Amino acid sequence: MRESDTKQILEKRFEKLSKHYEALKDYKLLIDKILVNKNIYDQFIFNTLKPEEKAILDAYLKRFSSIQDFLGAKIFSLLLDVAGINSSKMSEVLYYIEKEEIIDSLESWIELREVRNELEHDYPEELEEALIDLKFCIDSFEKLESYYFNSLKFANKYLK
């Protein structure tokens, strides 16, 4: 693939990713408003949430997952391509992404993925565990946001 094609694809993917990020940010603000009055991580209180409040939580988790998937599957390897860093396996991609300080650590990235995967597969059968994972994802907003911004910053060095 030509370098100009790679840059164009990366720009289009960032346009899509920015829409996911804006929605995630909006859902996070809505969740913060709910948290002012309700401890949504308490099982009893969670079970008394209005359907629209639960829908906000579901939408947040969907966008959280989408951003993480999109970064891992569609952005990281292209970032390395435009920087001239060859990597073919995902383990190599993540090694370089960590080395370039796009993610803070491989362990953090893997932990985010594991918790997100647990939620996708267990939620809401094991409510207590799901609420712990939900809290982790909500508390990890700034971390995921930093991965997004770090990716943008890195890309901008090569897209100009």
UniProtKB/TrEMBL annotation:
Gene3D superfamilies xrefs: Nucleotidyltransferases domain 2
Record's protein name: DUF86 domain-containing protein
